[in-house]
Structures are given as structure tokens and as C-alpha cells.
């Protein structure tokens, strides 16, 4: 689905009013916040690094004041405290594209963020691909081709070049006109309440803060393990997550996924058995061996350990039911001019095929539009 591009003169002036001004002093930040408070909405984006840390390091925060984009340098500022009240209010509206990671990065520095509009979510509800990128959406809606030269830049290095700043400013320059177009389109389609539901879900605290007790969900096939090993892999995943948060290091630096699976399979009950796992770093055994063996013991796995279960072939009747539900889903998606993954996931179809009531699987507007096609 494509929209008619905005007036070329407007887009040209919108592009030319940019400034490479970098907000890097407390006084400049206070002045910027004062201007943002007077806006009805502003675009927002972040640049960050997380290769060497658990928590992403915010390196740049871009915002728009009217048609003028600005870059805030968090590495030069003592804190972003002046932004807290602004971010917590439902007004002005904060416009992002695919904003979950941006919200996760900003949360520890600015606190909760309310009044969010996500152009990727809105675009999907208007009929665009579910994960459409910002540059592609700008091209389709506004007819503007964005440069791609800084996609692999190191945003923590200073000073930033003019090319880097121009690239960063482009990331927010067109968010306001995108928002206007998408709101108009969703209003015409009668889907603004769909968007409201999905945006509320986007800013829920549970989705933005790490929960170590749910870290095991990163692993596939957990349900196929015996009960003892399920307890063990959950305990190992939670232990690693908490350690990674504590040390602010990537979880893979604490213990690689492959070794968690290996420990779960081989159930080492002492340091010698743990050290016998091929490739496991000596430092892990030396500094964490006692804790890991304690987790193994607490899992209360039968000894000698039973063989791991073989992969269970899916029930042909369930497979056929999922296929049927998938076809019905595609039909309804086509009627609505949406991609089917916006309406329901494969996991949700599996639950329906297994007999769970639809109102326990789906909710809100998705339940409304699918109840009549997925309940028979």
C-alpha cells in the first residue's frame, strides 16, 4: 500500500531547515526541553552500542522541534534528568519507528515514557509489511530516498562527523509527516482504536525491563526435556541473566548458550565433571563452578540421568488443524489488506489447534476480527 507523497516544496523546506547543532551542555538541554514542552508532538530516535555490555549504552538521542531535528549528546551531559517529566507525560506525543529498543535504552535514564506513537506499528495496521524499515517507509510514503552510509558507525566515538550527524538527523526528520499520514489513513479505515491497543502494549513496563525468571524462553525445545532438566535449564538461564545484569556484560560472555545446553544434557555434579565439558572456559569452572554444580543439585535430576527424550512427531490431526486455521487467517488478512502475521502468530494458532478457547488466546481488536473465522 502506498500513499501520495507530500508536497515537494514542503519536503524540501523540511529537509533544509535541519541543523547539525549538538546539544551537549545542561543549559542547552534545558532550553531544548522548554521548546519541546510547547510542541504537540516530536520525533525521537536513539543511537546506541551494546556489543560489550548487557545494558545498551546510549550514545545519541535525536529529537525534532517543529521541523528542526536536534541531536542530544548523552556522553557529554552529566544526566538526562531534565527529560524525565517530559517523557512521563502523555503530551507531547513522542513519535518513534520500531521503538521498543529505543524505549528499553531510554528507560534507565529518563524513566517511563508515555504518549508514544510508533510508525512501524501504525504502518503495519495500514497494510504495509509488518517489519517495514524507516527508510523504506519514508520512500513509499514521502518519496524521499535516505542515505545509508552510517549504518555501521561507532556512535560512541567523539567528535561525531557532519556525515554522522546528518544521518542521525534524518532518522527523526520525517517522523512527524509519517505520523500525520498514517493517522489519517488509519482514521479513514476505522483502525485508530487498533493502534491505541497496540501502543499501550508497547509501553508496558513488563516488556521493557529484563525479567531473569523468563530468560529460559530464549531456548527452544525446553518442553521436550524431562522435568528435572526443565528445572535445570530455567535455573541456569536465570543465573546467567542475573550475573550479566550485575556485571553489565553480554550474557554470552557469562556463559554461552551452547554450554547451558551442554550442562543441561550432561548434568555435571561436581567441578571435575563440569571441567570435562569440551570447550568450557577454565575461568567459568574456577569462578562459577560451585554455583553451577549447586544449581544442578537443586534441579533434583535422577541419577544416573535418564536419556534425553527423542523429538516427538507432531499429531497429524493438529498439523492439519493448524494448516486449516492458517488458511482462514490468510483469507481474513486479505480481506483487511493486512499481512497475516499482524493478526495472529503461529504459536497462537498452535494453541487454538490444541483446543484452547479463542478468548484465552486472542484479545482486543484481534479477537473481534478473528472470532468468526477461527472458532469453528
Q: Point out poorly predicted stretches.
A: 1-6, 8-20
CATH-scheme architecture of the largest domain: 2-Layer Sandwich
- What structural category characterises the helix and strand content? alpha/beta
How many strand units? 6
Order of helices and strands: HEHEEEHEHEHHHHHHHHHHHHHHH
CATH-level-4 superfamily name of the largest domain: Ribonuclease H-like superfamily/Ribonuclease H
Described by strand count, sense and barrel closure, the largest sheet is: 6 strands, mixed
Arithmetic mean of pLDDT: 90
First CA to last CA: what distance?
A: 31 Å
Estimate the helix proportion, in percent: 40-55%
Descriptive key words:
alpha/beta; 19 helices; 376 residues; DNA polymerase, domain 1; Nucleotidyltransferase, domain 5; 6-stranded mixed β-sheet; 6 strands
In short:
With 376 residues, the protein is α/β, with parallel strands linked by helices. It has helices at 8-16, 26-37, 84-88, 100-110, 119-125, 134-142, 162-173, 175-189, 192-202, 205-208, 227-247, 251-254, 257-266, 271-275, 282-298, 316-336, 346-353, 358-361, 364-374; strands at residues 22-23, 41-49, 57-65, 68-72, 93-96, 116-118.
Amino acid at each position: 500500500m502506498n500513499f501520495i507523497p507530500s508536497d515537494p516544496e514542503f519536503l524540501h523546506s523540511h529537509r533544509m531547515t535541519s541543523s547539525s547543532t549538538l546539544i551537549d551542555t545542561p543549559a542547552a538541554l534545558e532550553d531544548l526541553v522548554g521548546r519541546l514542552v510547547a510542541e504537540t508532538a516530536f520525533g525521537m530516535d536513539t543511537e546506541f552500542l551494546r556489543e560489550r555490555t548487557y545494558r545498551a549504552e546510549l550514545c545519541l538521542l535525536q529529537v525534532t522541534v517543529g521541523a528542526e531535528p536536534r541531536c542530544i549528546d548523552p556522553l557529554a551531559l552529566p544526566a538526562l534528568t531534565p527529560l524525565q517529566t517530559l517523557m512521563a507525560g502523555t503530551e507531547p506525543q513522542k513519535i518513534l519507528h520500531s521503538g521498543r529498543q529505543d524505549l528499553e535504552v531510554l528507560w534507565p535514564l529518563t524513566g517511563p515514557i508515555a504518549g508514544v506513537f510508533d510508525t512501524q506499528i501504525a504502518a503495519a495496521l495500514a497494510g504495509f509489511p509488518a517489519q517495514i524499515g524507516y527508510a523504506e517507509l519514508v520512500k513509499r510514503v514521502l518519496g524521499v530516498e535516505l542515505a545509508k552510509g552510517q549504518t555501521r558507525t561507532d556512535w560512541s566515538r567523539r567528535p561525531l562527523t557532519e556525515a554522522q550527524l546528518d544521518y542521525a538527523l534524518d532518522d527523526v526528520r520525517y517522523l512527524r509527516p509519517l505520523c500525520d499520514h498514517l493517522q489519517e489513513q488509519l482514521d479513514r479505515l476505522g483502525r485508530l482504536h487498533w493502534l491505541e491497543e497496540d501502543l499501550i502494549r508497547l509501553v508496558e513496563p513488563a516488556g521493557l525491563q529484563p525479567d531473569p525468571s523468563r530468560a529460559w524462553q530464549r531456548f527452544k525445545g525446553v518442553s521436550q526435556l524431562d522435568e528435572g532438566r526443565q528445572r535445570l535449564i530455567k535455573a541456569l538461564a536465570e543465573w546467567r541473566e542475573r550475573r550479566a545484569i550485575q556485571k553489565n556484560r553480554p550474557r554470552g560472555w557469562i556463559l554461552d548458550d551452547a554450554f547451558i545446553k551442554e550442562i543441561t544434557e550432561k548434568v555435571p555434579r561436581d567441578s571435575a565433571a563440569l571441567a570435562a565439558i569440551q570447550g568450557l572456559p577454565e575461568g567459568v569452572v574456577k569462578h562459577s563452578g560451585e554455583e553451577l554444580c549447586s544449581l544442578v543439585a537443586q534441579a533434583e535430576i535422577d541419577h544416573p540421568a535418564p536419556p534425553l527424550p527423542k523429538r516427538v512427531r507432531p499429531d497429524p490431526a493438529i498439523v492439519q488443524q493448524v494448516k486449516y486455521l492458517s488458511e482462514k487467517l490468510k483469507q481474513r488478512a486479505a480481506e483487511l489488506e493486512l499481512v497475516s502475521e499482524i493478526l495472529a502468530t503461529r504459536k497462537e494458532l498452535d494453541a487454538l489447534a490444541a483446543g484452547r478457547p479463542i478468548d484465552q488466546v486472542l484479545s482486543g481488536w484481534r479477537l473481534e476480527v478473528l472470532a468468526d473465522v477461527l472458532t469453528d
